[in-house]
Design goal:
Chain lengths: 123, 170
């Protein structure tokens, strides 16, 4: 999958060539879009805020992932699954996310079932 | 918390963040071997919820300070007010001395953390926390030039920063 998103944040010096900057952060366009949906209509967002939010949400992903993968490791499993993520969120104090995520997961599974019952033509 | 764009009508679920990028960020953790499509979906969605939450709180801070533009200081205050978020994010934010035109030279009521591990068994910044207690009332003298790149401090030998993580996508 090729990522073709510009606007990579440059507020951190790239001392390491191992991790490319654009691969470490979520796209700033998506972050800014979601922020605008939440803020009052007349509110503005500084560019620095968007870049900081990029860092925050990317750090959130790493934080949850680390907690979930630790649980997998202890239980000798190789695949991080949805239950591990839900457990990690609860463990890290984001309990109020569990209910909306359960609803979304339910819809996601229904969607997957529909997709399985009606496989799209690939020919 | 306010659930923006929450639809119960069975409308197709559209994720805001590209799944490939989320997968790459998850794969920065060396311990992650495989991620199911459900897990990837849940992480993407929970990240949206987190962003919405933080944006909302930051906007509230901006309104309290009678500002139209949300800036870095408002995000910092919002992070401080939420314990679970503060645990893993406060040390990641740029220090106040680097903030663009801060509203006040001193931070209001910067309380030191009394409980190092209130929830969960660990925080990422535990491994990088400075020995001296952080006093947010005054700007730290050493702004971190290089934020922590290591996502899994338990693996000091990093041969490959990005290991491919296959996701079971039907």
């Amino acid at each position: 999958m090729m990522d073709n998103v510009g606007g990579s944040s440059s507020n951190i010096a790239e001392n390491s060539g191992i991790i490319r900057e654009q691969d470490r952060l979520l796209p700033i366009a998506n972050v800014g879009k979601i922020m605008k949906q939440i803020l009052p209509p007349n509110a503005k967002i500084s560019k620095e805020s968007k870049e900081t939010m990029q860092e925050c949400v990317s750090e959130f992903i790493s934080f949850v992932t680390s907690e979930a993968s630790e649980k997998c490791r202890k239980e000798r499993r190789k695949t991080v699954n949805g239950d591990d993520i839900c457990w990690a969120l609860g463990s890290l104090g984001f309990d109020d996310y569990a209910e909306p995520l359960r609803r979304y997961l339910q819809r996601y599974r229904e969607q997957e079932l529909d997709r399985a019952n009606n496989p799209p033509k690939r020919g | 918390m306010v659930m923006a764009d929450e639809e119960e009508n069975g409308v197709s679920i559209q994720l805001e963040f590209p799944k490939g990028r989320v997968k790459k960020i998850m794969a920065l953790d060396k311990d992650v071997k495989r991620v199911s499509s459900e897990a990837l979906f849940l992480v993407s969605r929970s990240t949206e919820l987190f962003l919405q939450f933080l944006a909302e709180k930051s906007a509230q801070v901006a309104i309290e300070k009678k500002r139209k533009t949300v800036n870095l200081e408002h995000i910092r205050v919002a992070v401080k007010r939420h314990q679970p978020t503060r645990d893993f994010l406060l040390d990641e934010l740029p220090p106040p001395s680097q903030a663009a035109k801060p509203d006040k030279p001193t931070q209001p009521a910067g309380r030191p953390k009394l409980d190092p591990a209130p929830r969960g068994t660990r925080c990422i910044d535990q491994f990088f926390r400075k020995p001296e207690p952080e006093n947010t009332a005054q700007a730290p003298g050493q702004p971190p030039e290089n934020p922590a790149q290591a996502q899994s401090p338990e693996n000091p030998d990093q041969d490959q920063a990005q290991s491919p993580v296959p996701v079971d996508e039907s």
